[in-house]
Every structure is written in C-alpha cells, then in structure tokens.
C-alpha cells in the first residue's frame, strides 16, 4: 500500500479545519437525515440493541433492501441469501472486489474513479485497467471502443459507478447497454456502486445495471444509507447479488469487520421503508443547490459541467488562466477561504484531469453563497487563457 498515502478527503478536510475555510471538498451534508430515522437509532440503542447483530445483517434491513429493489426497479432478491449488509458502500465494494478478483485478474474502472477503488483493487492483487470519461457535449462519457479495447482474457470485473462521483454523469441506457454487452460476451462480473441512486436531477433517471438483459445474474450491486438519508457518518451499506456471489462476499467480509453496527441497521431499514418523501425533497433541494453553486462558480470565472446526479460539480480552471488543480486546491483555503478537491487524484492519467477541481454542493444555501462570494472576491489566476 505504499504510494496510497492519505486520502484526499482527509487531507482537504484537515486543511479546512486548520484554516477555517468553507469545506466544499469532502462530500458530506451539513444537515442530518429525517428526524424519525434518527429517533429510531436512538430508540434502538436505548432499548438494548447494542450487541453483535448477525454477520449478514439484521433481518429488518435485509428485508427493507429487498423490498426497495423490487418496488423501485422490479428486481427480486431473496433477503436471506441475496442481500448482505456492509460497513458502508466502501466495505461492500472492498469485500466484493477482494472476493471476486485476485492476482492475475484485471478490473476495469472508469476514471476519474472514487479513490477507494484503486486501493481495494491493489489489496486484491488484481490490476486496474482505467477507461477515461471525457467531456462531450456538456457531460462526461466514455468511448465504447475504448471500453471494448480494455477487455482482454484476464478481465474479471468491471466497476461501474452511476450516478458518478466526481463527474456527476448518470449513465444512459445506451451507455449501460455497451457495458452489459461486454459483460455478457466475456462473462464478466459487474460491481456497481449506486450510492447516489436517488440523487439524480432534471430528467436523468438512475437505471441499475442489474435490470438490463442477462445482468441480474452477473451484477453485484452496492449502495448505502449515507447519501440517500444524509447520514454519511453511519457507514451502513448493503450488497445485492446472486447467492453464490453473496457467499463469496460474506466469506471476505466476516473477517474484515464481521458485522455492522446494529442500531443504525434498524434505522436504515426504517428509512428505506418510510422516508421516500423526505428523500424526494432532498433530491429537489440538491438540484437547486447544484444550480446555485454553478451560477456562483461561473461568476467566479470557472467553466462548469452541470452534473445529472450526485453532490458534485466539476469545474474547469483553465478559463482562470490556471492549469493545475492540485496547486489551486492547496492554495485555495489560504487565498479564498474555500476548500475543493483536485480531481486529478481520481485518475491514472492525471493529465486528463489536471485542470478540474471538484466542488460539493450538499451544503446549506448560505454556505454555498458565502463560498462563491469568497471565490469571486479574489483573483485566483493570471487571467483568461486559451482553453486547449
Ligand atoms: N462510492 C462513492 C462513489 C462515494 O462517493 C462514496 C462516498 N460516500 C462511497 C462509495 C462510500 O460510501 P459509504 O460512506 O457508504 O462507505
Ligand atoms: N464520498 C465522499 C466524497 O467523495 C467522501 C468519502 C470519504 O471521505 N472517504 O467526497
């Protein structure tokens, strides 16, 4: 694990704490989830739900996840054999990759990718094979030929994150079809990271890869309560997959953490069953926050890509006369009192993302307003330069 160092989120949040800057770096909301869900967790603790729960998860949460997949997407999973609870999506992804890939295997990832993917693939001993998402007509997408060319006889898994962090892309049915066709053709397993499954904007719709023809049997779907219910600190996630894959995931997970905090599982089960309306309000409010942040970033001189989902906006810094997002992210707290994340850390080919920084908009309106006012008030670069 030499070379992985400290995560960018920890680094940038520490920088925000040190400097007192507004933290639009790490993606976490500055408000909590639905009150009745919080009460359910408190009540569970007070009523004695404080010992080891079953390793695969409490029956209430496994049933609620199965019901959610059926209600929302028409997917049927047996809660006893095909649903499995993990310490956030992070552990769900790690246990899936460790279970299903190893030395000699290759794992395809779309870059920029969420930082834990690279580390987890390294832990598994497999090799990551990145396929780059590039801006095209205002959104980030991949070239299907490039994706096809990344597949070879060693390819075992493809990791798919939609809605996508950090670009905000929500894969279309056509994009998912291109992925599914390769999975079917080459007998690949897809691991999908769907933590932003509810957080889509305008007319973008989240389509789980498992709903495509022939994909339920070869897809391991990962999600969590953190983003959907604004409780990123609860680290309560789940995996849905065919029973054989779940058994493999369970074999790994039982020795990583054995089980997941019991009270939060009950609260997440409650929320999945009863807080749909609250989540819809959250989605609408995030869409408005997205627009608010974009207007402010554009006024401050950035070029932005309007995300179709997630918490994040990718901002191009070249119109400010700047070229390196890492330099800007390190200088920004001191210069402007704002923290952002340099997107290049999510790439194997940093030059593809050198000129992007990521801003999070899962914050109170007044916090977003203050941040963009600060950004507009200082001179961040050397003036406009030709965008290459
Ligand atoms: N995947 C993506 C794409 C994320 O942005 C995050 C951060 N929340 C995670 C996984 C981790 O989710 P969790 O906190 O549930 O482990
Ligand atoms: N998912 C959050 C982000 O992308 C942060 C997660 C973390 O800190 N590891 O900003």
Describe the structure.
This protein is α/β, with parallel strands linked by helices and 388 residues long. The protein is built from 14 helices and 15 strands. Helix 4 (88-100) packs across helix 9 and helix 11 (276-299) packs parallel to helix 14. The site of 4'-deoxy-4'-aminopyridoxal-5'-phosphate has 14 residues, from helix 4 and helix 8.
Radius of gyration: 20 Å
Report the mean per-residue pLDDT as an integer.
Answer: 96
Structural class estimated from helices and strands: alpha/beta
Our measurement of the CA-to-CA distance between the termini, rounded to an integer number of angstroms, reads 35 Å
- Count of strand segments: 15
> Which strand order do you get reading across the main beta sheet?
2-10-9-8-7-3-4
Order of helices and strands: HEHHEHEHEEEHEHEEHEHHHEEHEEHEH
Name the overall outline: globular
Counted by DSSP, the helix tally is 14
Beta-strand content estimate: 15-25%
**Uncertain segments:** none
User: Largest sheet, if any?
Assistant: 7 strands, mixed
Question: Helix amount, in percent?
Answer: 40-55%
Bound molecules: 4'-deoxy-4'-aminopyridoxal-5'-phosphate, glutamine
Give the oligomeric state. single chain
Descriptive terms for the model:
binds 4'-deoxy-4'-aminopyridoxal-5'-phosphate, globular, binds glutamine, 388 residues, alpha/beta, seven-stranded mixed sheet
């Amino acid at each position: 694990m030499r070379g992985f160092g400290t995560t960018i989120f920890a680094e940038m949040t520490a920088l925000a704490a040190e400097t007192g800057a507004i933290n639009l770096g790490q993606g976490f909301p500055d408000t909590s989830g639905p009150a009745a869900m919080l009460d359910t967790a408190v009540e569970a603790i007070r009523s004695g739900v404080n010992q080891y729960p079953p390793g695969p998860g409490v029956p209430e949460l496994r049933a609620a996840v199965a019901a959610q997949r059926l209600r929302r997407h028409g997917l049927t999973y047996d809660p006893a054999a095909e649903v499995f609870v993990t310490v956030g999506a992070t552990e769900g992804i790690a246990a899936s990759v460790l279970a299903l890939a190893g030395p000699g295997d290759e794992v395809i990832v779309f870059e920029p990718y969420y930082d834990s993917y690279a580390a987890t693939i390294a832990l598994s001993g497999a090799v990551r094979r990145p396929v780059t998402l590039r801006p095209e007509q205002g959104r980030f997408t991949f070239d299907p030929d490039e994706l096809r060319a990344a597949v070879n006889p060693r390819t075992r898994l493809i990791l798919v994150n939609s809605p996508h962090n950090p670009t905000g892309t929500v894969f279309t049915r056509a994009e998912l079809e291109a992925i599914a066709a390769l999975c079917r053709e080459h007998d690949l397993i897809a691991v999908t990271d769907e933590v932003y499954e509810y957080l889509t904007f305008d007319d973008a719709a989240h389509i789980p890869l498992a709903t495509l023809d022939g994909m339920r049997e070869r897809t391991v779907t990962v999600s969590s309560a953190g983003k959907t219910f604004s409780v990123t600190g609860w680290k309560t996630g789940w995996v849905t997959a065919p029973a054989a894959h779940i058994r493999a995931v369970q074999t790994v997970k039982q020795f990583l953490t054995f089980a997941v905090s019991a009270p939060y599982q009950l609260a997440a089960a409650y929320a999945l069953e009863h807080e749909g309306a609250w989540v819809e309000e959250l989605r609408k409010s995030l869409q408005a926050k997205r627009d608010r942040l974009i207007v402010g970033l554009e006024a401050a001189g950035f070029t932005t890509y309007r995300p179709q989902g997630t918490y994040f906006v990718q901002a191009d810094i070249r119109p400010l006369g700047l070229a390196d997002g890492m330099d800007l992210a390190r200088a920004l707290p001191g210069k402007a009192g704002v923290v952002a994340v340099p997107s290049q850390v999510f790439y194997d080919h940093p030059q593809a993302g050198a000129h992007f920084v990521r801003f999070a908009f899962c914050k109170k309106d007044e916090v977003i307003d203050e941040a963009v006012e600060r950004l507009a008030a200082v001179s961040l670069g050397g003036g406009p330069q030709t965008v290459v």
